[in-house]
Design goal:
145 residues; 4 helices; 64% helix
């Protein structure tokens, strides 16, 4: 005998949606319109083209993200340079400690004088980097902020 008391046997697979999207529409674009559409889609930052089209049709807000890869590369290298400056500062402190503990006063002063000259050049270089960064931000990053 069969057991007919089960009304909803498990069939497997995924659960059906409550409101499935079954209405489909088709449009045709020429090459120029398609290129413009694809560039708008890429600028939107959306991952699904159907969501982008729906947002365009129903005039939902479309976010456009513009990223300047050269600016990002510049900041990555600037961050790396900042890390190198920190390393130089740590090494500077270690050298001064070693000079004071291992050399006579006269010899330590001579080396400290040379180190001071190099430090002045490094300070001038860092000021130049700050100036160039401000110039870069003013000339090339106006529209991104």
């Amino acid at each position: 005998m069969e057991n007919n008391s089960r009304t909803n046997p498990h069939k497997g697979g995924r659960h059906p949606k409550k409101d499935p999207a079954v209405n489909r529409y088709s449009i045709s674009l020429n090459a120029e319109e398609n290129a413009r559409f694809l560039s708008l889609f890429e600028q939107s930052g959306m991952n699904v083209m159907a969501h982008f089209i729906t947002a365009c049709i129903f005039q939902k807000g479309i976010t456009t993200i513009k990223g300047d890869k050269t600016a990002i590369d510049y900041y990555v290298r600037l961050t790396s340079l900042f890390g190198q400056f920190r390393t130089v500062g740590v090494n500077y402190n270690q050298v001064v400690k070693m000079l004071n503990s291992n050399f006579s006063e006269k010899k330590a002063l001579a080396y400290l004088y040379k180190l001071e000259k190099q430090t002045a050049e490094l300070a001038f270089l860092s000021q130049k980097i700050i100036q160039l960064t401000a110039e870069f931000e003013m000339n090339y990053l106006k529209g991104l902020k």
